[in-house]
Specification:
Elements (H helix, E strand, L loop, with lengths): L7 H6 L1 H22 L4 H11 L3 E3 L1 H7 L4 E3 L3 E2 H8 L3 H14 L2 E3 L4 E4 L1 H6 L1 H21 L1
Antiparallel strand pairs: 1-2, 3-5, 4-5
Helix pairs in contact: 2-8, 3-5, 3-6, 5-6
Length: 145
């Protein structure tokens, strides 16, 4: 059973089991995501940053059944994304335009960006890969006790 509060020490004491599993799983996850983003992992990070403020219930429905998330969404602007990610503002702006062209983000009248339902639908394989990653790492954690 995984402890309720996993600490850094708990992880460090189990790195012999956790690290190899994590590395193998993250390579698979990033490879899948890289394909979905035409090789542009910065664009993936930027899209993820537009989603970081999405809070509420219904992630399973949002990512796999294309149902809107019920809860709060605080849109974020280009500068905030640049600060959060460390990606230069102009690069963030260009990649947001690319994501907008794919229909994966929209910009409101105040200049804030939000992910769209099309992103959840088009990137479903990435959501599947993320769940697989989590399953592998959490199973390794359970095994490590």
């Amino acid at each position: 059973m995984i402890e309720k509060h996993i600490t850094r020490r708990w992880v460090e004491e189990r790195l012999d089991v956790l690290h190899p599993t994590h590395v193998a799983a993250i390579v698979r996850l990033l490879t899948e995501i890289r394909t979905l983003f035409d090789g542009d992992l910065d664009a993936m990070i930027i899209l993820a940053a537009t989603s970081i403020t999405l809070q509420g219930d219904g992630w399973l429905d949002l990512l796999f059944d294309e149902e809107p998330l019920t809860g709060e969404n605080t849109p974020t602007n280009t500068q905030s994304i640049a600060q959060l990610t460390g990606i230069p503002r102009e690069t963030v702006r260009r990649k947001l335009c690319w994501l907008e062209g794919k229909g994966w983000v929209v910009r409101d009248a105040k200049g804030n960006w939000m992910p769209t339902m099309a992103a959840a639908s088009d990137l479903r394989a990435g959501s599947d890969a993320t769940v697989t990653y989590l399953v592998r790492v959490l199973n390794a954690a359970a095994k490590a006790g």
